[in-house]
Amino acid sequence: MRIAPSILSADFANLQRELDAIKNADWAHVDVMDNHFVPNLTLGLPVVESLLKVAPMPLDAHLMIDDPDRWAPQYAEAGCKSVTFHVEAAADPKKIARDIRAAGARASMAIKPGTPWEPYEELLPELDMVLVMTVEPGFGGQSFMAEQMPKVRAVRESVKKHGGDIWIQVDGGVSAKTIEQCAEAGADTFVAGSAVYGAASAADAVEDLRRLAAGHAH
Ligand code: DX5
Ligand code: ZN
């Protein structure tokens, strides 16, 4: 069970301090948004390069951007240990995944709430993680979509059949109230923004989430 706090809910004027506040997290989740694929703008490669210099944990880049074919490999080359592209924006998902792996990172593919899993099942051999979005991408602090749990189960079934070390991530509205049903459905990697950075102690929130998820490990 891996916890990846999203720095989208952190204080952007103090990102180094905010990363230090979650030293006990497995990953730090970095939401890259371009105002085209999603109606919000956050940060890009130059800021990620600076974060990589100071982050005490590996970075998990979630690219909510157009043209991931061009950009995703660059986040891997920069040093992000996991790079997630959205299949809805991808021209050639297989090639993106191969390019990410060739640059030394885990290759991950995200699907939005309205995107079905089945058409992409055949891509599993190219992937190290599948991200099932549990909100519409674009903003932190939205309500968890429990109706995405059947999709998490379907991905878990595919991964079981396929074998190998393929992680299943959920992102959006994950909190102490919702993480157990995600774990029970088969997720093993959990992004949480507001539930971590909105807590009195971010580190305590990470521990709580990990403990709750571990109670439902597959
Ligand atoms: C949403 C982002 C998420 C976001 C989650 O588009 O991908 O990573 O930060 O925030 P919470 O946990 O507050 O829903
Ligand atoms: Zn995200």
Structure commentary:
The protein has 8 helices and 8 strands; from the N terminus they run βαβαβαβαββαβαβαα. An 8-stranded parallel sheet has the order 1-8-7-6-5-4-3-2. The longest helix is centred in the last third of the chain and has 14 residues. It is globular, with a radius of gyration of 16 Å. The relative contact order is 0.16. The model has no long low-confidence stretch (mean pLDDT 98). The structure holds D-xylitol-5-phosphate (DX5) and zinc ion. D-xylitol-5-phosphate (DX5) binds next to strand 2, strand 8 and helix 7.
Radius of gyration: 16 Å
Number of distinct helices: 8
Largest sheet: 8 strands, parallel
Average pLDDT score: 98
Q: Structural class, please? A: alpha/beta
Give the neighbour order of strands across the main sheet. Answer: 1-8-7-6-5-4-3-2
Distance between the termini: 10 Å
Number of β-strand runs: 8
How do the helices and strands follow one another from N- to C-terminus?
Answer: EHEHEHEHEEHEHEHH
Question: Which residues form runs of ≥5 with pLDDT under 50?
Answer: none
Q: What's the shape?
A: globular
Beta fraction: 15-25%
User: Roughly what percent helix?
Assistant: 25-40%
List all distinct small molecules, including ions and cofactors, that are bound in this structure: D-xylitol-5-phosphate, zinc ion
Short description:
This protein has about 220 residues and is an alpha/beta fold. Helix content is about 35%, strand content about 20%. The longest helix is centred in the last third of the chain and has 14 residues, at about 150-160.
